[in-house]
Amino acid sequence: MSELRELYQEVILDHNRNPRNFRIMEHPTASVEGYNPLCGDHYTVYLRMEGDRIADVSFQGAGCAISKASASVMSQLLKGKTKAEAEKIFETFHTLVTGKREDMGSIEEVGRLAAFAGVREFPARVKCASLAWHTLKAALEGESKNVTTE
Ligand code: ZN
Q1: What is the pLDDT along the chain (150 residues), one digit of tens a residue?
Q2: pTM of the prediction?
Q3: Kindly report the CA angle at 137 between 101 and 21, in degrees rounded to 5?
Q4: What distance in Å separates the CA atoms of residue 44 and residue 60, rounded to the nearest whole number?
Q5: What pLDDT, on the 0 to 100 scale, is given for residue 62?
């Protein structure tokens, strides 16, 4: 168990140090700003849709290690997915970090998302971990107003 915990820790550290898709997108079809005032996490999530598929997703901004790593993992997982697939992954992530899901499901199913399951013990951290996801969801749904966790 502690080995698994260390592995998850490593995922978060790695994505915080080298965030993937951490850039401003030139021609997004949608972009939404997300803010978590409790921690100070502040990101813009960019989205480029091609039909029903997410052709590109990127983010830019600043925040704590958990918020940044979560946005990074999210961008990797969602690129190339359809809107429906993305929403399913969002649900999986959400139930995982809010602890509504007791079993973790198969590792194949949750993959790197499992790294964030530990935040469920820390309600303030759940907001850090889910900020980019809520922001992305708003962008997917074509909302243009900013997202805040409060
Ligand atoms: Zn944070």
Answers
A1: 467 677 778 889 999 999 999 999 999 999 999 999 999 999 999 999 999 999 999 999 999 999 999 999 999 999 999 999 999 999 989 988 987 766 555 555 677 888 898 888 888 899 999 999 999 999 999 887 789 988
A2: 0.91
A3: 100
A4: 5
A5: 98
- Assess contact for 124 and 39: CB atoms under 8 A: yes
Report yes or no: 11 and 115 within 8 Å, Cβ to Cβ: yes
Cα 149 to ligand 1 centroid, rounded to whole Å? 11
**Which stretches within 18-146 are classed as H helix?**
65-78, 83-98, 107-110, 123-140
- Which domains are delineated in the chain? 2-143 (3.90.1010.10)
Q: Helix H segments across 29-117?
A: 65-78, 83-98, 107-110
Q: How many Å lie between the centroid of ligand 1 and the Cα of residue 125?
A: 6
Q: Please report, to the nearest 10 degrees, the dihedral formed by the alpha carbons of residues 8, 13, 14, 15 taken in order.
A: 90
Q: How close is the Cα of 26 to the center of ligand 1, in Å?
A: 26
